[in-house]
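Predict structure. Chain length: 311.
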Amino acid sequence: MELVTADKVAGEKPQITDDDDDDDDDDDDDTNYKDGEEVFEGYYMKTGLEIEKKVHSMSRSQSLDLVASCVYWLKMINSKYSEELAQECLEWIREITGENIDTSGNMDNFYEILKDGTLLCNPPAREKKLTDVIFSLFCFQINSKYSEELAQECLEWIREITGENIDTSGNMDNFYEILKDGTLLCKLVNDLKPNSVKKINVSTMAFKCMENINCFLDVAREMGVPAQETFQTVDLWERQNLNSVVICLQSLGRKGGNYGKPSIGPKEADKNVRHFTEEQLKAGQTVISLQYGSNKGANQSGINFGNTRHM
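Prediction complete.
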């Protein structure tokens, strides 16, 4: 019997000649049978053909015929592969995704680059559009209002209240790094108003840090910070508007004295409540406000309209 290998495969489907009787020689030549099984399994894995592996249940000639068929179809399929088109595809993928890949069109390189599918799923590299430029200018305009002096004053006040040994430099990078996870802000409001934040997350995961910031904002509102002087969570976590964070801390710092702690900024005005009696309120209803004008001393003297009447 002659086994036709991949090297002997030409343009036509290979044939296997078996001069022996299949029924008589199925168990005679185990070596050739195992070789055929290895070749079959190798090409089965490489080509990905949807063929059930039934080598062990086949006769020797049937298994070898299946091997030769796999080799034949592999040659036929790969003969249509174009390195020029493959290279063109890889160059296009590199341009779209921005990944630094080898754009050689040979079959091995093409397979190694694309086999895991990650490059095919990568989002395209986004070009810088007009909306991105406008957003960048908007952020620049917001951050231009940022005051390092006020930020430093806030950090010094936080250090005094919490007792934490922090860098009080007012530059934007330091201010962001110290406050971004929200843990120090939660400690601050807990020192001002004990047990106001029940649980402080120490994890560095994004949603945990943003939860800390949300807890701080809720307590700040309860302590009297106006809604227009608070900030959004992303303003701090994504560094979109650090100036609003400074404004919020300044507003909270002015209320420190109400909780027996040092305060910063100008002193807030005290309420001046006035109480009027019922008689005073009724007397005020009889007074004509100057907003309605006055008719005191009004007359028509010296007013003439048109020609006088002749008698």
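Summary: The longest helix spans residues 60-78.
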